[in-house]
Amino acid sequence: MKGFWHDAAEFFPILMNGVALTIVVTIGSLLLSTVLGLIWAMMRVSGIKTLSMLSASLINVIRGIPIIVLLFYLYFVMPDLGVTLSALQAAILGLGIAYSAYQAENFRAGIEAIDKGQIEAAQSIGMGWWLTMRRVVLPQAVRIVLPPYGNVMIMMLKDSSQASTITVAELALQGKLIASSTFKNTSVFTLVALMYLTMSIPLILLVRHFEKRAGKK
User: Fold this and answer.
1) Which CATH number belongs to the domain containing residue 75 in this structure?
2) Of 23, 26, 59, which is closest to residue 43 (Cα–Cα)?
């Protein structure tokens, strides 16, 4: 145990550089997945058959491609097509696109959970589709989707480690580099696991808070 704490003190500053990149990748991909997911969801519930089918097809395609393959495609294949992305850009874009499909399903479920009577009432007083969504549906849907949205945040934080496969020096890759050079696998990866856990616990507690609030309504 004494050796672990000595190693932790030595490796912690290096691993913190990886934590910073992990947070950047997580936040960037979370924002992108939220925007794209909302767009896909709005297309699904638009009532326009072409848009609904297009959105459903996009979601199915995205969900059918492993995240690591999507990352490889963006980082290694796109340059052949004339589009060069940095490893960080590819990681954020890849994770954002991958999780947009799950976000879309969460948002769609939240929107469809709203009482249809409220939508009909809003439209009966002259509100258009978009105005009804913005003022009546979405504010209520947000409260419904908060618990699953929190779960997506947790999964995205952990899946940010896949960015290491395209050389993003986030926490997992920093740990791997330290372990390969020092051969202190137990100390390094125990510390890495504890750091991921430390970042995840506040999100887990936040999800529980949202679930309790949702359960009281």
Assistant:
1) 1.10.3720.10
2) 59
Cα separation, 37 vs 127, whole angstroms = 24
| Whether pLDDT at 213 is above 90 | no
What's this model's pTM, rounded to 2 decimal places?
0.88
| Helix, strand, coil share of the chain (percent; to 5) | 90, 0, 10
Domain encompassing residue 66: 2-215
Q: Which residues touch 162 (CB under 8 Å, ≥6 apart)? A: 67, 68, 71, 91, 95
> What span, in angstroms and rounded, lies between the C-alpha atoms of 143 and 211?
10
Q: Which residue bears the tokens 């125990």? A: 190
Question: Can you point out the beta strands (E) in 124-194?
Answer: none
pLDDT at residue 215, rounded to an integer: 60
